[in-house]
Amino acid sequence: MRKTRDDLTISEALRDPLIAMVLRADGVKLEDFKQLLETAAGKREPRSTPVGNIIGAIASRTNLPAMPCFG
To answer: Which of 1, 39, 64, 71 is the S-S candidate for 59 at Cβ 3.0 to 4.6 Å?
Structure first.
């Protein structure tokens, strides 16, 4: 099976035993770490994807918004 991403999801990070050991050693509560990750994720720019690049290229040529609307 081919892995498609290198980063842990927030839920994976919260379950990771090594991260849990470091948090305990540093005196950081799991809930505080979760809140930090969620805040950082909310401020993060979306990652560029091949599909996103194609949509953006088409949108720039056709004067359409880069994000498709479904609904």
So the answer is: 64
DSSP one-letter string for 12-69: HHHH-HHHHHHHHHHT--HHHHHHHHHHHHHHSPPPP-HHHHHHHHHHHHHT--SS--
CA–CA gap between residue 18 and residue 6 (Å, rounded): 17
Tell me the per-residue pLDDT of 2-12, one tens digit each, with 9 for 90 and over.
556 678 899 99
pTM greater than 0.85 (yes/no): no
- Residue 21's alpha-carbon distances to 27, 31, 56, in angstroms, are 10, 14, 42
Residue 37 near residue 43 (C-beta atoms within 8 A): no
